[in-house]
């Protein structure tokens, strides 16, 4: 199994809604295996396909009480409200208190083509909502209030400058041609 580069805020792939999966085949299963490897190495508890540059509607997860893959997920019901400090592998090193529904009912299919129906609460519900956001081109920064957004802009600007400095050093050594720009909408 191999790891993939996790795309970070500023990469347009993270803002593009993902397309439905029309066929579950061996290549999708292999990609999911690689995504689990990438997620564990990060480390994280969920990883959506767009985060590794794949514009398909599925994600992998492992929240300690179980792991899995949900293909073409949809939230069909939600209830309550829960504030929790949330981070994201695509916004590295930063987290904010985000309000989301406390319970959800998620449906989709698994890698065997079976229907999946999950009643999720608390952290599991938040995990699924977060990954589903990625499939819709939404990042956790889109859930911030005005004050959090100002703080986020400042933090992301500092992160971009730090990355640019690191990238400039790598460019000087001939190791990369990537750009270090990050922007918060």
How would you summarize this macromolecular structure in one to three sentences?
This protein is 31% helix and 28% strand. It has three helices and seven strands, in the order αβββββββαα.
Which helices and strands appear, and what pairs or packs with what?
Layout: H1 26-41, E1 46-48, E2 58-62, E3 67-79, E4 82-88, E5 91-100, E6 103-109, E7 115-121, H2 122-135, H3 146-172
Antiparallel strand pairs: 1-2, 2-3, 3-6, 4-5, 6-7
Radius of gyration over C-alpha positions, nearest whole angstrom: 17 Å
Number of domains: 2
SS field, number of helical segments: 3
Biggest sheet character: 5 strands, antiparallel
Terminal CA distance: 35 Å
Which second-level CATH architecture of the largest domain applies?
Alpha-Beta Complex
Structural class call reads alpha+beta
Mean pLDDT: 89
Approximately how much beta-strand content do the residues carry?
Answer: 25-35%
State the low-pLDDT regions, or none.
175-185
The tally of strands reads 7
Share of helix, binned: 25-40%
What's the CATH topology name of the largest domain? Peptide Deformylase
Question: What is the H level of CATH, i.e. the homologous superfamily of the largest domain?
Answer: Peptide deformylase
- Tell the overall outline: globular
Order of helices and strands: HEEEEEEEHH
- The spatial strand order of the largest sheet comes to 1-2-3-6-7
Q: What's the CATH class label of the largest domain? A: Alpha Beta
């Amino acid at each position: 199994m191999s790891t993939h580069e996790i795309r970070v805020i500023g990469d347009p792939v993270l803002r593009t809604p993902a397309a439905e999966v029309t066929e579950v085949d061996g290549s999708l299963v292999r990609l999911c295996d690689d995504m689990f490897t990438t997620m564990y190495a990060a480390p994280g508890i969920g990883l959506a396909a767009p985060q590794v540059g794949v514009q398909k509607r599925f994600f992998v997860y492992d929240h300690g009480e179980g792991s899995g893959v949900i293909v073409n997920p949809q939230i069909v019901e939600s209830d309550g409200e829960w504030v929790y400090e949330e981070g994201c592998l695509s916004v590295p090193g930063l987290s904010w208190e985000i309000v989301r529904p406390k319970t959800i009912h998620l449906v989709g299919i698994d890698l065997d083509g079976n229907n999946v129906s999950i009643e999720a609460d608390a952290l599991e519900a938040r995990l699924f909502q977060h990954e589903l956001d990625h499939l819709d081109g939404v990042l956790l920064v889109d859930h911030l209030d005005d004050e959090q957004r100002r703080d986020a802009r400042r933090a992301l600007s500092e992160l971009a400058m730090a990355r640019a400095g690191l990238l400039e050093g790598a460019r000087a050594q001939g190791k990369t041609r990537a750009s270090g720009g990050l922007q918060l909408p």
